[in-house]
Amino acid sequence: MLKFGKRALIGLSIAALGLALGNAAPPKASAAGTEYYVSPTGNDSNAGTLASPWKTLQHAADTAVPGSTVYVRGGTYNKKLSITRSGSAAAGPITFTNYASELPVIDGTGLSVTEEEGLVQIIDASYITVKGFEIRNFTTSTRNKVPVGIYVEGAGSGISLLNNKVHDIKNTATPTGSDLLGRDAHGIAVYGSKKSPISGITIDGNELYNLVLGSSESLVVNGNVDTFAITNNLVHDNDNIGIDVIGFEGTAPSEAYDQARNGLVKGNVVYNISSNNNPSYGKTLPNGSNAADGIYVDGGKDTVIEQNYSYNNDIGIEIASEHKNHSTSNITVRNNIVYNNRYTGIAMGGYDTNRGSTTDCKIVNNTLYKNDTVGLNGGQLLVQYDTKNNVIKNNIMAASSSNYLIYNGYTQNTGNTVDYNLYFAPAGSAGSLWKWKNTLRTGFSAYQTATGNDAHSLFADPQFVNEAGHDFHLKAASPAIDAGYTDTAIIGDYDIDGQPRVQGAAVNIGADE
Question: Could you tell me the pTM of the whole model?
């Protein structure tokens, strides 16, 4: 795999009229909190009330106190917002949110980008909530400038980024030489760059799209980030990685805590993520570079990736390490549906012998369907360089026209357990293709005998409800039902739909119970 670098706007202006039309009343701050209001028609010398609002978000950020809520009226705000004042655990967060059903837009059109900078940024602050904004049009054509839609940096805790729409954040410079390894743009970025971590961060319900990222990522947690939840986001149509959990890039002062960790990546939908035609990936190849992951863990640890949909990307999900002698570890990938990705469904291990390893990870109860669509023979599961002590169980893998199911082109592969999976391929059991420790085997039986893998696995049609319509629930007669290995320590409590994970005699194979 070739990789270069990191893979109606205005609401009603009269609240009473809105209530008369049946709109919900605006939310209220807690009894101990204070309410402030900002409007494009306001003035920063006003009182900051609903009747006499401020004009700028920055004035509100410089004034708000712990436990307060800044209600932002609909309209366009063409200024950056830098939040450095904190809420508190006792009084509550400082919350910046849209007013009622109105949509405030923070628009970066014409604004300069200074080094690495967020259109909205939270620097060394804690107990902050940013909710219900559209954040857009923050761009540059200058190398070494990094525009970010929402940027959280330094240290802090108790930060929530909720229900925001982030789009058209771009660096359109054409990289050359060493610039291929640089950072270019992000939709949402969390960089733990201090000895104290960024902890307790929630990124939920956001939409990120039309981002020109170069060698960077759509949504990323990097460095000293400890305890995070990336949930229920929609990430699509961007030119590099969708969601990334990163370690060992030198973001934090010490390697000892330079890993995003103790995280949850759940309920996200990620699609149309591709590095093809991205100049940061060098000369365009005949089939494209196909190096951008929908969901990626690069050096992170102790994280669960579950109940996500990842499709029409270059790679569905990857757990790997780009840094030699460093490992991505203790990642559980379970109950995800991964389909129609160009190179492979799930990848693990370093992408060449100069990279790091994947160790002590679990890939369980996923449904992988017809990935490997562009003829690169990545199969449904791509086992790369230096994989150790990983568990791969209870997965459905249905091959594309390539007929490749598992592709492992490296001999440095020790202690991995592969069993209780269900496989299917257009060429049938005898014509299915497998590469294990760099040796090609044709046919399921030949692969089992030669490798010792999959002694309890099946080769059969999984009988999806409607695969043409991408409904990967199981028909009542599916051989995957009750055919898995019920290890409650790793399969999780719920399937892709949030239903109890075990309902019959044993767990089903695949994402659907």
Answer: 0.93
What are the structure tokens assigned to 441, written together? 């085997």
pLDDT tens by residue, 87-141: 999 999 999 999 999 999 999 999 999 989 999 999 999 999 999 999 999 999 9
Q: Is 256 exposed, middle or buried (0-12, 13-18, 19+ CB in 10 A)?
A: exposed
If we measure between CA atoms, which residue out of 422, 374, 430 comes closest to residue 398?
422
Give which of 456, 384, 447, 389 is closest to 417, Cα–Cα: 389
Question: Which conformational region is residue 176 in: left (phi greater than 0), alpha (psi within -120 to 50 degrees), or beta?
Answer: beta
- From the number of C-beta atoms within 10 Å of its C-beta (0-12, 13-18, 19+), residue 468 rates as exposed
312-363 tens-digit pLDDT = 999 999 999 999 999 999 999 999 999 999 999 999 999 999 999 999 999 9
CB count, 10 Å around CB of 442? 14
E-assigned strand segments in 84-164: 94-98, 104-107, 116-123, 128-131, 134-140, 146-154, 156-162
18-32, 68-82, 133-147, 213-227 — which is least confidently predicted?
A: 18-32
176 pLDDT above the threshold of 90: no
- Could you tell me whether strands 439-442 and 433-436 are parallel, antiparallel, or unpaired per DSSP bridges? antiparallel
Q: How far is CA 182 from CA 7, 22, 36, 176, 350, in A?
A: 11, 51, 40, 10, 20
Those residues whose C-beta lies under 8 Å from the C-beta of residue 469, and which sit 6 or more positions away, are: none
The Cα–Cα gap between 221 and 205 comes to: 16
Average pLDDT, the chain: 92
CA proximity to 181, closest of 144, 223, 221, 136: 144
Segments of 253-356 assigned E as strands: 261-266, 269-273, 293-298, 301-306, 309-311, 315-320, 327-334, 337-339, 344-348
> In this structure, are residues 513 and 507 in contact, taking their beta carbons and an 8 Å threshold?
yes
Residue 449 burial (10 A CB sphere; 0-12, 13-18, 19+): exposed
Using the predicted structure, report yes or no on whether residue 388 has a pLDDT greater than 50. Answer: yes
Which pair of structure tokens corresponds to residue 243?
Answer: 């969601």
Q: Has residue 178 got a pLDDT over 60?
A: no
Quick one: tokens of 219? Answer: 């949504």
| CA 23 to chain CA mean position, Å | 34
CA distances for 83 relative to 58, 64, 332, 397, 510, angstroms: 8, 10, 34, 46, 44
How large is the C-alpha radius of gyration of the chain? 24
| Domain residue ranges of the chain, discontinuous segments joined by + | 8-104, 108-289, 318-513
With a CB cutoff of 8 Å and minimum separation 6, the contacts of 286 are none
- Amino acid identity of 489? A
